[in-house]
Structure formats: structure tokens, C-alpha cells
Design brief:
The chain has 291 residues and is mainly α. The protein has helices spanning 18-34, 47-57, 62-75, 79-84, 87-94, 101-117, 125-128, 136-147, 156-166, 175-185, 191-208, 229-242, 248-255, 259-271, and strands at 246-247, 275-278, 281-284. The chain is globular and about 70 Å long.
Length: 291
Amino acid sequence: MSFQSVPANPDQRNVLTAEEIGSFRELIYGHHRSHPRPMPWRETDDPYAILVSEIMLQQTQVERVRKKYVEFLDAFPTPAALAAASLAEVLRVWQGLGYNRRAIALQRCCTAIMTRFNGKVPGEIETLETLPGIGFYTARAVAAFAFCIAAPLIETNIRTVFLHLFFAGREQVADRDIMPLVSATLDRSNPREWYYALMDYGVMLKQAHPNPGRRSAHHIRQSPFKGSNRELRSRILGAVLAESGLSASQLKSCLEVEAELLEKNLCDLQREGFLIRVGSTLMVAGQSSSP
């Protein structure tokens, strides 16, 4: 039987029949196998490499991650290599991905993996959640993709699938209403391929329909990067990485930014652990001064 959309109402219906689950999986797997989306992190079961990909993919377009992922793993092939690197080295390779806080979080995570687990990424969800920068979704994604542990999880593309096929016409749908359906339909024998298949189907839906994700109670429209304060922070870090030892006045001239706005961002970046001040000069932690 072909799958037909099933209306989900938490007050009236929260159980799917075996036939509905089977036809739903057939639909999702059929599209996945007919329209494969090869990606380097799907070709490995190395927990560290999968952890890197999951941190990179947070709020970042897949194509940008695809280009940076291999370069990053070439530079830091193991948790030990990343934990031992200077922050300046890490940020230099991370440049272009944005959200530099994730680079710090990933390095701190690897430091904890080295000190607590002898360099091996743990496979238990509860243990993964104790690591820096690892939340509910990332712990379950690493467990599924690296260790084939089946636990319900939701990310933007998976959410799109369930909104489109089970919540047609409903607005402000909460994840707590979606999660029972994710759990009921989960292929517990192969969560790795199942979640990749769901994500691929969600990508297709976003291309074919007005984004169903906007009907989620958790949807937040991301502000443009161009001209934002996020862009300014990135430009500041890029300038200091390119030439350590710059002063605030030199940065102001180089970036053509108001002194007050620059100083606010410098203070924020220093408090967050990105920059250090040595006298009047600025450096990224672990960076040596330019001659």
C-alpha cells in the first residue's frame, strides 16, 4: 500500500497501525535509495568524525560543511590532535563556517574526551550529554550515526517530514506532539540509515513545497549574515588571525567600524575566550605576535 498522510491529533490519535508505519517507512526509504545524497560523513562510522560533522552542521548549510569537513579532519584527525592544538590554529581552519563558538565547544569537548575517556568518544547518550557543547539532539545523533543506537530525535529536516505528512493545516505544532510519531516510526534495526533517509526526504519537501517547518512552534527565522553583528565578529577574528598584534585603533581603521561598536565586540570576544589583550595589542589565544 502507498502511504497516505495521517492526521495527528494528540487528543484523538497518537497510535499508528503497523500497516501505516510500514507504508511510511517504504515511502521514506524508497526516496532515499532512489535519490541518494552522498556526503563524506555518511561514509564513516568513526565517532570523532561524526561528532565533528554534527557540530559543523548546526545552523550551517550542508555545502559549506562539505568543503570544510575534510580540511578540518586533515588538520585535526583525532580528538588528541584537536585538544592539543592552539585556539588560533583551530579558528584558522574553522574560518568560513561561522558560529565560531562551536569551534571552541568542539575543542573543549575533545579535551574532555581525552581526560575522561582516554581519547575515545563515548557511545552512551547520557554520557555524551555530559560533554561540553553536546545537547539533546547531538548526543542522540552521534549515538545513532556512530554506534547505531536507536533513540528518538528531531532536527529541522526530520521535523519537516512529520509536519508535512501528519500535521497538514496545523500551525504552531510543538515537538512534544511530533516526538511520539518519531518514536513509533523509528527503524530501530537501522537508525543510522533511517535518520539519513528522513533528512533527505525533508530536504526534498523543502524544495517542493513552502517550507512546512514554518508551522513549527519552534521555528525561528534566521537573520541575514551580511551586515549583521555576527559578520562583524567574524571579520574581527579574521583580521586578528591574519595579523596578530593589531591594536584596537588599527582594527577600527582596517574594518571601518565605529569605535564604540568595535570595543563592545572586542570585550565580548575577550570574555568568551576568543581574544586576549597583551598591552594594547590583540591576539587569539595561542597565537604568536607578528614580527
